[in-house]
Amino acid sequence: MIKAVIFDLDDTLYDEMEYCKSGFNAVARFLAGLPDAPPAASVFDALWRQFNAGNRTRTFNAALDQIGFSYDSALVGRLVQVYRGHEPDITLPTESRDVLDTLADKYPLGLLTDGFLPAQELKVRRLRIEHYFQHILYTERLGRQFWKPSPAGFEKLISLFGADPPTMAYVADNEKKDFIAPNRLGFVTVRIIRPKRIHTESSTQPADRARHTIRRIGRLPALLAAL
Fold it and tell me: Is the dihedral of CA 227, 162, 136, 184 positive or negative?
């Protein structure tokens, strides 16, 4: 019997692609305000083209090269700050809100998310989901070394909820990191495969895969009830 449900955030409760678009638009507007910069639309197009080509680590550098705009490491650092610190233009899908409404009446809920602060906090605030969760744990607050696949965040939640891991479910999306620790701790793990997800890779290690897989978050309440 499930006694607590823990959610991941990005590409679990909403489409992270929307956050990326929002961030690139913020960066494009900022850059367009600099001397001799191209229009914001041209900057966004370059950023989005690089991102969709799979350039996820040097997106800004490659986009600036593409549009022929001179830059140094300080400017790239500033663009990173703009991206992470912008007020995101994202919304919680109706299906996700309906699921949270349903589950909040049946289980204590928690949120465990990696990522840089304040970006993750701004996402949660914009999505207006704080009230659903008894505990929200940003692993960045523990230290970057405790991002998943570290078990630290899960161990903290075990203590906060006072529940045994086999009675706790963790719902997330990324098989490369999300399920490694909770599987080993004994959680029930559920993978959501969203159509627009960013991380499409599957783990080659069976022990690191989620125990259950769904393709719509709307199927989660029935799955949890059956466990």
Answer: negative
pLDDT tens digits along 25-71? 999 999 999 999 999 999 999 999 999 998 888 999 999 999 999 99
Q: What is the homologous superfamily of the domain 4-15+91-226 according to CATH?
A: HAD superfamily/HAD-like (3.40.50.1000)
- Condensed to tens digits (0 to 9), the pLDDT of residues 158-177 reads 999 999 999 999 999 999 99
Distance CA 210, CA 227 (A): 14
Here the tokens at position 21 are 């678009």
Q: What pLDDT is stored for residue 174 in this prediction?
A: 94
CATH of domain 17-85: 1.10.150
C-alpha span between 26 and 40 (Å, rounded): 9
Q: How large is the average pLDDT for residues 75-83? A: 97
Helices 16-32 and 40-52: crossing angle, nearest 10°?
140
H-assigned helices in the chain = 16-32, 40-52, 59-67, 73-85, 94-104, 119-127, 139-142, 152-161, 180-185, 220-226
Is residue 198 a contact partner of residue 54, using CB atoms and an 8 Å limit?
A: no
How many CA atoms within 13 Å lie on the side-chain side of 15?
14
What's the pTM value of the predicted model, to 2 decimals?
0.94
